Amino acid sequence: NKFDLIANILVKQAHASQDNEDKKVLLKQAIVFYKKANAGAAARLTDEQLRLFLTQLELETNLGVEFVNSSLSSTIYRVILMNDQKRADKLRSEFKVPDKRYWWIKIRALAESEDWVSLEKFSKEKKSPIGYRPFAEVCLKAGETKEAIKYIKRIPSPVEKADYLIRLGYWDLALEVAIESKSEEIMNELRNKCPDPKILERIN
């Protein structure tokens, strides 16, 4: 209908506008027309865009860094990079960011900051909704093998855990996993790949 069409045009104009006041007015008008068109989902989405835009303007004022035109995930990521956890948590709450999505964002941001202490602290806040592989992976990507081992040890699957340890050459830890889990699969993997005769002697 025509209200829906007008709203779509207003949203496009808002995105194209370089003037913050114009952008704000255009998005507000678009919400009104979406409601007239009974396009509830589009109205809610545009309202979220408006709220994010206003939040980004506030962040720019308070932190002195450009945020406008960034996605919600990127905004949270950059706020964490700036070590402003209070604002990151506020964004998470206001925009109802799902746990899994937020954990991915925060893990990557803390790793980029090389804040390994905060990363470990975060991993212990509660049971990770995305497991502990992402923690291990960001550490390995940064060349922090010792940090990665902390999270590899917390991976529940013995085979998955041993696979990491074997790949990294932690033969003794991999053998411990094999013995504890009584996994012949891991034992065979060690027999095929381990160059350490002492480890092989313990297996055979």
SSE layout and pairing:
Blueprint: H1 2-16, H2 20-36, H3 40-63, H4 72-81, H5 85-94, H6 99-112, H7 116-123, H8 133-141, H9 145-152, H10 158-168, H11 171-181, H12 184-193, H13 197-203
Helix pairs in contact: 1-2, 2-3, 4-5, 4-6, 6-7, 6-8, 8-9, 10-11, 10-12, 11-12
Please describe what this structure looks like:
Helix content is 75%, strand content 0%. Helix 2 (20-36) runs antiparallel to helix 3, helix 4 packs across helix 6 (99-112) and helix 10 runs parallel beside helix 12 (184-193). It is an all-alpha fold and 204 residues long. The chain has 13 helices and no strands. It has helices at 2-16, 20-36, 40-63, 72-81, 85-94, 99-112, 116-123, 133-141, 145-152, 158-168, 171-181, 184-193, 197-203.
Name a few traits of the molecule.
204 residues; single chain
Number of helices: 13
Oligomeric state as shown: single chain
Coarse morphology: elongated
Helix content: over 70%
Stretches with pLDDT under 50, minimum 5 residues: none
Order of helices and strands: HHHHHHHHHHHHH
Structural class: mainly alpha
**Beta-strand fraction estimate:** under 5%
Number of E-type strands: 0
The N- to C-terminal Cα distance equals 76 Å
Q: Give a short account of the largest sheet.
A: none
- pLDDT averaged over residues: 93
Quick take:
The protein is an all-alpha fold and 204 residues long. The chain is 75% helix and 0% strand.
